[in-house]
Amino acid sequence: MKTARLATAFLLTLALALPAAAQLPDLQQPPADEPIIELPGEAPDPADPAVGEQPDDPGALQEIAPDVEAIEEPVGPVSPRVDDPEPQIWGNLPELPFIGVPTQGGVNYMTAVGPVAYDTIWVSNFVHVIMALIVIFVTGLLLYCIIFFNKKANPTPARFTHNTRLEVAWTLGPVLILIVIGSFSLPVLFKQLEVPEEELTIKATGYQWFWGYEYVDYDFGFEQFMLQRDELEPAGYLPEHYLMATDSAMVVPVNTNVRMQVTAADVIHSWKVMSFGTMMDGIPGRLNETWFRAEQEGIYFGFCSELCGLDHSFMPITVKVVSREVYDEWLDWAIDQFGGTRPEETVAAAN
Fold first, then answer.
1. CATH pick for 196-350 out of 3.40.50.300, 3.30.70.260, 2.60.40.420, 3.90.190.20
2. Which residues of 279-307 are buried (b: 16+ CB within 10 A; e: fewer)?
3. pLDDT digits over 118-158, tens only?
4. What is the pTM of this model?
């Protein structure tokens, strides 16, 4: 029966294909008496030496497209600093230790240097302890059931199907655990968003794919681009800091409450520095706020933690925490460099 169906299908297909093949147009040259339609424009001059030359002829390419340049394959991410062969490096800052740096093969968090980071890591460790206790309890319960309730040890199993006390216990137990975790984690979450009295306000704007910073109190700003491999050493970084170090740095004084205003110009980005315990999304058309206080001088690296596009992993963050005296000197240099103002000087001049 199946063979007859296959044969019938084959014959029908052949019958349909033969007329279609018979109607194919003849691909030979048209007859000589058929008129030739000429398109408007001048016909190519056979005497022109450029006519008939192959496209790979260097001479022909130079005459036809003299402005075409050979494009070399880029190595690594391409920096937006196309018109600045010598990136601006903060040259008036002292040598600082690298503190907020990922560790190769590390299993812990970056070094915490602020109150929010301290609390965040504490809550994380606290939750891990609770998780470990739950795993130990469930594993022990499974082993107990395997040993004492197998067929050999318990040949006549019980016939009951419900136990009210047990069902209440395994329902209320997880609820109480969640309440305990929430009572410790929610205050830390609110702490990230409740900005204390700030001493410095900085606005970070995410672009595809770099960061821009505005020192709101001093009316100046600058942009921050990732350094290429050959730019690391002149800027004072090590080879292992590639993909983390930037040409400029957000400079803040130590032990200072810094209000971070985060937004974006194109897509959603996220300003994240683990050592500060700070992560805030930058959303176009919206200004989000968070804060940090770094309690140790040094260099800290951060990253955009939103998948913002092609070069998402090539827009790192560099923050340099310095003493108050060094920060004041850098601030004078930055105001002179970028055309900002000091509000205290403006108030004094007005009085």
1. 2.60.40.420
2. bbbbbeeeebbbbbbbbbbbbbbbbbebe
3. 999 999 999 999 999 999 999 999 999 999 888 888 888 88
4. 0.69
